[in-house]
Known about the structure:
Layout: E1 2-4, E2 16-21, E3 25-30, E4 42-47, E5 56-61, E6 66-72, E7 75-82, E8 85-93, H1 102-105, E9 113-118, H2 133-145, E10 148-150, E11 165-169, E12 176-181, H3 186-196, E13 199-201, E14 204-205, E15 208-209, E16 213-215, H4 224-233, E17 245-249, E18 252-256, H5 265-290, E19 300-301, E20 316-317, E21 320-321, E22 323-324, E23 327-330, E24 333-336, H6 342-365
Parallel strand pairs: 1-3, 8-9, 19-22
Antiparallel strand pairs: 2-12, 3-5, 4-5, 6-7, 7-8, 9-11, 10-11, 13-16, 14-15, 17-18, 20-21, 23-24
Amino acid sequence: MLNDRNDLSIEHQRATSVLIEKSNVLFRQGAAAKKLPSFPGYLAFSQVGSNSFGGVAIYYKKTMKCQVIERDTNFIMIETDVIGTKLSIGAIYVPPNTSLPFHQLSKYKDKPFVICGDYNAKHSYWNCPKNNSNGNKLFNWIEHAGVDVIAPSRATSRKSEVLIDFGITNDANSWQAEVLDEGLPIPLLKWIYNWLQERTLSIHFGEVHSRTISMGIDAPQGSVLAATLFRLHVHFLPSYFFSLTSHMFADDLAIQISGDLEKKFSLNIIELEMRAKFVLEQLGIFADDNILPINVNKTKALLVHNVVAPLKPKLEFRGQQIEYVKRFKYLGITISTKLGWDNFISARIQKIRKVYQGMKILFYNIPKEKINM
């Protein structure tokens, strides 16, 4: 949920945000909902509000099929399909000193749903330091309706320790919420922009200098500037996979998709294939939006299992098959299908033996009086 309660324009990059993610949906509330900002790869539905703080909007990935099923002042509800299940997703704003719209909330309590926004309701149940009237009423309704709360662990307001931006859902187990300080202050952005203007490149070797070259685009490979700009460019890539475990080092991305221990292996394979297909689609969208091509030939898949002859999920990226491997070296650690340490330990022992043999040769060939130990 991108919170705009303090009337920050979209250009202000230091908006404190609560991000509640599933199926790549973002929520926005506030004056900016009247004139929606654009985000690469997203479309949006919006609804006007009753005051300057009201108005709500839901951003969703272009790859998702969504439709509006209900609109009202300060409230909008859309419906989408998540792996064969209809999910209702709503955005809400409750102005201060007004009643909560329980007639709208109650319509969806018996089906898969999530409604996020600024409830202006305070209660210790979602980590507020004190309760207010709306908080007590909403808590009682939640208890009676048998629904859950999705709330971050710290305050969502920049002015106080109050937490009034959260979500309610029929099942909170598969959702995550956290407060993010997203983006950079405008002065710092301007400083970086000015720093990158009219840059030049030359090579110095001793007293010899090459000719000076103007740099309008690109950066020298291996330079600090190139590494810094690349890290800024891919900073938000892991955020495309909030519901998964992802690791990024330089330009190497590893994504872990876990199965369910309670399901049969064959059912896990089907589900893993569906989830992997969705992940690869998101990766393709990021690549297109940021002009970063994916090297499919260097992309490998490893299936961790204990089955003798397993079926493997069919993985492909834009028509090109992704190769499966039995072991993969990532950041110096060899990972195998059985998650054993044999290959890693064997490789380390061989390396130690080579070093030891080299040191032994040096020891016996260098005069003892030359060895300072």
